[in-house]
Amino acid sequence: MPLPTIAILMPGDMGHSVGRALKSHGHDVITCLNGRSERSRKLAQAGGIHDVPDLETLVGEADMVLSILPPASAVSLATDVASAIGRTGKKPIYVDCNAVSPGTVKNVAEIITSVGAPMIDTGIIGLAPGKGKSTRFYVSGPDTAPMRALDGKGFEVIELGTEIGRASAMKMTFAAVTKGSWTLWTAILLSAHRLGLYDALIAEFAHSQETTLANMKDRVPFLPADAGRWVGEMQEIAKTFREAGVSGDFLDGAAWVFELLDQTPFASETRETMDRSRTLEDSIRVYAATLSQRAKG
Asked: Residue 1 has what pLDDT?
């Protein structure tokens, strides 16, 4: 039996790496780059992902569609794909891999299943395949077998049950620790800088919080390149917390930090072009200047 043809929407940092991993295991991998940036085209090419002219063609050729894009676009993409399914009559498995709340992914499921296509809820944890420890795809839904069949093809697939929303909740609660911590560190250092205590606080961290300080130096200077797309993720995490009856205010603050970082000069960088020599002190100084400029505006 031929292996399923898999569509990746869209081939960004994570998507193109997933596509490359699947292609290396014998799958035909396609995408549709209409309206996408030149960077997306280069990433698709790097991943060996074939571009098709429109969503109708993509839906017609694909056995499975993996939606991997910024969370703010998750519902609109599902709507576009559902429309293409309605026009073609072809019903590929739709896999929502986006960083969205259980409530949002259930909305996506309603859109997809309303045209008769199956849906799998998926939460991706870890770096893109080939860039670190094993990438893990948590999956949930009535029938997750098609995703479980991809286990070991560049990533690990972990079953979380039959309920749509469980996989997304797993992603949201995990990302609250990682990105939530990075934004908390940024807010702490920014506050200390504006209060004239930055050097003293860094000295104390060096004395009593060496591991935390090392992690700050490793992460905080390089957040702006991804900050714009992470604003929506923090908003979805806040929504997840509130859906669970827990305060989401912490994550509202995280979204605020990413909004600020997205206004800094460093936000124009990509993961390929960012200045890895930039220091923590250099970064906080620019973040503070951006905050001052925003206050004046």
From this structure: 65
How far, in Å, CA of 293 to CA of 194, rounded? 13
Phi and psi torsions of 156, nearest 5°:
-100, 135
Q: What is the pLDDT of residues 204-234, one digit of tens each?
A: 999 999 999 999 999 999 999 999 999 999 9
Q: Superfamily assignment of 6-163 in CATH?
A: NAD(P)-binding Rossmann-like Domain (3.40.50.720)
pTM above 0.90, yes or no: yes
Fold classification of 170-296 (topology level): N-(1-d-carboxylethyl)-l-norvaline Dehydrogenase; domain 2 (1.10.1040)
Distances (CA, A) of 115 to 31, 91, 109, 120: 21, 8, 10, 15
Q: How many CA atoms lie within 13 A of 39 on its CB side?
A: 9
| For residue 274, cis peptide bond before it (omega within 30 degrees of 0) | no
Query: Residue 21: CA atoms inside 13 Å, Cβ hemisphere, count?
Result: 21
pLDDT tens for 166-210 read 999 999 999 999 999 999 999 999 999 999 999 999 999 999 999
Q: Cβ contacts of residue 191 below 8 Å, gap of 6+?
A: none
How many C-beta neighbours within 10 Å does residue 276 have?
Answer: 6
